[in-house]
Amino acid sequence: MLLLPPCSPPEAIRLVHFPGKNPPTRSTPWPSPPPPAAAAARHHHRIAVGSFLEEYTNRVDVVSFDPDSLSVKAHPALSFDHPYPPTKLMFHPASSNPSKSDLLASSGDYLRLWEVRESSIEPVAVLNNSKTSEFCAPLTSFDWNEIEPKRVGTCSIDTTCTIWDIEKNAVETQLIAHDKEVYDIAWGEARVFASVSADGSVRIFDLRDKEHSTIIYESPQPDTPLLRLAWNKQDLRYMATILMDSNKVVILDIRSPAMPVAELERHRASVNAIAWAPQSSRHICSAGDDSQALIWELPTVAGPNGIDPMSMYSAGSEINQLQCLRVAYCGAA
Q1: Against a cut of 0.70, is the pTM above it?
Q2: What is the mean pLDDT of the chain?
Q3: Residue 223 — very low, low, confident or very high, per pLDDT cuts 50/70/90?
Q4: How far apart are the first and last CA of the chain?
Q5: For the chain, what is the radius of gyration of the CA atoms?
Q6: Angle (CA) 284 7 309, round 5°
Q7: CA–CA separation, 237 vs 11, rounded Å?
Q8: Cis (ω within 30 of 0) for the bond into 222?
């Protein structure tokens, strides 16, 4: 897991191993000057980290890590300026086409594609769906379709979700997804995605029936925004979401709309990020303003006193973002 503190320069990227309650950590100093971390992505032995500066010029750095020694190595040549803070970074998912394995995507003002080479990073495309102006509504997040990697879904403050065909650099479809700003999007199947919004709902969309969507959860307090969404790729029946200014992680079963199957409530402040373990259907990690990252193992049936995390990591400041590499390994910045 990669852990990132918000809005203040991180001194290091930390890869954290979770064998028990007090996991050891190893740190590698960030290149100088260190950017405040806003978004992160990982692919094989590479990690991309973006800055969060309230100005036009931001940075994205690609570093490499060794999962055995839990060490991180900086590559000054693999760093580039990014217009505005990137709201999300993702590498091209593993596919049968190895030439796409080092394609990096970022969201902010537009969806941008970058080619990460051995000693350089080159821009590939800037995808803008605005037909009436050179400006467009900012993108809050995006997700790459692992089953059909030519598809990337973006979400925006203008209430829409847009599905891009990145092989054609063209829009496949655009949907008015919610009544208010859309904050996150996640693919489930090749043509099925879900999104969360400031209107407080989780909605599922099927590209084969674009006229309809299914609301599977709504905030218990009216108009409380849902900020993040994670779909369990090992068991597509389950999702996780977080509410604004809430210490809860809400676990949903799409077969039982409206009622959460579990609520994880051991954070002492607002939760900022969630990620399912990529090789396990029962493990999820969360991180928040309490400077803690918690790994949870979901039981078949929750007990009367709730669910306790199986492991925790305490950082030096609030954690804004994380990436789960596998159940036992995490990283921080």
Answers
A1: yes
A2: 85
A3: confident
A4: 10
A5: 19
A6: 20
A7: 39
A8: no
